Amino acid sequence: MTVRRIVTEDVGGRSKIAVDGPAPRTWCEEIWASSPEHPLGIESVEPASQLSARPGGTFFRMVELPPDAVARPATAERTVAGVDEEGFHRTPTLDYVYVLDGPVELVLDDASVVIEPGDCVVQRGTNHAWRNHGARPIRLLAVMIGL
């Protein structure tokens, strides 16, 4: 599914549409990003070039997780820097994740939990991995705030 993104701007005191089209896609769909230098974001942000937002920055992303049977073992084409071969990763971010499809398993070092569509996760810089045990891809909507 392609994410249509609509971005507004203020030009001369009047609100306008700055962007109306598909979000750039690599390993995720990069809906928008901001940085300390560009707190409202800019169109020229390179899509999904980093796993985590830097301090004072944000990422707004749609992440699609393929079934584990497809995603594991990881291949060079699907590998994201900072994610190990089991899918574990830790980012210096506060993440708000909304589960659109599911179920999906959130795996931590000492626990795991199955999350259903409509559930939310607040990920606070912890080591984690996602497991899709189903037959179809599932989607997560995430806002990542760099710490």
Structure commentary:
The chain is mainly β. It has a single domain, classed as Jelly Rolls. It contains 1 helix and 10 strands; from the N terminus they run ββββαββββββ. The chain has one helix at residues 68-71, and strands spanning 4-11, 14-22, 29-34, 58-65, 93-99, 104-108, 112-115, 120-124, 128-131, 138-146. A 5-stranded antiparallel β-sheet has the order 3-4-10-5-8, with no helix packed on it. The chain has a 3-stranded antiparallel β-sheet with strand order 7-6-9, with no helix packed on it. A two-stranded antiparallel ribbon has the order 1-2. It starts with a strand and ends with a strand.
Q: What name does the CATH topology carry? A: Jelly Rolls
Give the strand order of the largest sheet, numbering strands 1, 2, ... along the chain. Answer: 3-4-10-5-8
Largest sheet: 5 strands, antiparallel
Based on helices, strands and strand pairing, what is the structural class? mainly beta
> Would you list the SSEs in sequence order as H and E?
EEEEHEEEEEE
The share of residues in helices is under 10%
Number of distinct beta strands: 10
CATH architecture: Sandwich
Question: Uncertain runs with pLDDT below 50, 5 residues or more?
Answer: none
Domains (count): 1
